Amino acid sequence: MAVPSRSETDGDPIRIIAVDDHSLLRDALCQLIEAEDDLTVVADADRTQGLAELVERTAAQVVLLDVEIPGSHAPTVVAELTDRFPALHVLMLSMHGDTQLVQELLARGARGYLHKSVPRESLLAAIRNAVARDPQLTIALPSSGIHGSGFAAPEQQRLSPREREVLTLAAAALSNRQIANRLNVAEGTVKRHLRNIFEKLGAVSRIDAVNKARDAQLIPRP
């Protein structure tokens, strides 16, 4: 059974699986979600074994997955889920802000990474954003000195996955034409993405955009 896309389920609650080995946190998470009319928890689990079968059985659209479940390697779990269910959206929850792990999880197909201390509204917004027609990656990490809330700058939530791809390739010194060939898009599309990136990051050049993106942990450093 394929995971339904949002267009196939417009008007229906977003179907969510919560996976966390701490029962109190998992129960609280489920209660928070169930209080929303447009969200529903179709299953919860304390381990990742059998998670793919659970996704298939429940036709879940979003999996909220704790990064630190014992006996589980989160990047492998994410890759297996997203390979088997391309329309599935996996959001990672963690008590840690390991940026290298964040990059690995996003590269494996996770659609977001949120620290467990994020406000309730941020978590709910991340779930809704994940199934939007033009979803964007959501990253909320503790970060000293960045904004009063202590979380990563909003630019991290505004760059689309494609814009990140373009900027990562630009950081590798590829030309617009080379980026277009790599992504199998028109060169004009690459230029449009770069214009959008410059505007979102307040950058004045490719180098400026790359530096700002690296400082904000949007793309990996070399």
From TrEMBL:
For the keyword DNA-binding, the answer is yes
Q: Which InterPro entries match?
A: CheY-like_superfamily, NreC/VraR/RcsB-like_REC, Sig_transdc_resp-reg_C-effctor, Sig_transdc_resp-reg_receiver, Tscrpt_reg_LuxR_C, WalR-like, WH-like_DNA-bd_sf
- Keyword annotations for this protein? DNA-binding, Phosphoprotein
Please state every residue range assigned to the domain named HTH luxR-type. 152-217
Which residues carry the post-translational modification 4-aspartylphosphate, per the record? 66
The region annotated as signal peptide is none
Residue ranges constituting the Response regulatory domain according to the UniProt record: 15-131
GO: which molecular function terms? Answer: DNA binding
Q: Which GO terms describe its biological process?
A: phosphorelay signal transduction system; regulation of DNA-templated transcription
**Entry's Gene3D superfamilies?**
3.40.50.2300, Winged helix-like DNA-binding domain superfamily/Winged helix DNA-binding domain
Report the PROSITE patterns cross-referenced here: HTH_LUXR_2 (PS50043), RESPONSE_REGULATORY (PS50110)
Which PANTHER family does this UniProt record tie to the protein? TRANSCRIPTIONAL REGULATORY PROTEIN DESR, TWO-COMPONENT RESPONSE REGULATOR
Task: Supply the name of the protein.
Answer: DNA-binding response regulator
